[in-house]
Specification:
Radius of gyration: 11 Å
Strand content: 5-15%
Shape: globular
Order of helices and strands: EHEHE
Distance between the termini: 33 Å
Number of domains: 1
Number of strands: 3
Length: about 80
């Protein structure tokens, strides 16, 4: 089963890490800040969390379309 996270900040990456530790594979995420040059500190942090947690980070929300479940942990701080 593929699980996709909308938003991959502290909450999303922690949940994904717990699932990964329990043996769940097929973790995917999209976070609008991951590749946005305006967020110079958030982008690299999100990317690092994905790599360390074994989560595939998509370039768009369309990457999550094949996922069976999509927990969301987003906020609008802009």
């Amino acid at each position: 089963m593929r699980i996709g996270f909308i938003g991959f900040g502290e909450a999303g990456s922690t949940i994904a890490g717990g699932l990964r530790s329990a043996g769940v594979e097929g973790l995917f995420a999209f976070d609008i800040n991951a590749h946005d040059a305006r967020f110079r500190t958030a982008g690299p942090l999100i990317q690092r969390r994905a790599v360390e947690g074994g989560t595939t980070l998509g370039d768009s929300s369309q990457a999550l379309a094949p996922c069976a479940m999509m927990p969301t942990s987003t906020s609008f701080n802009r």
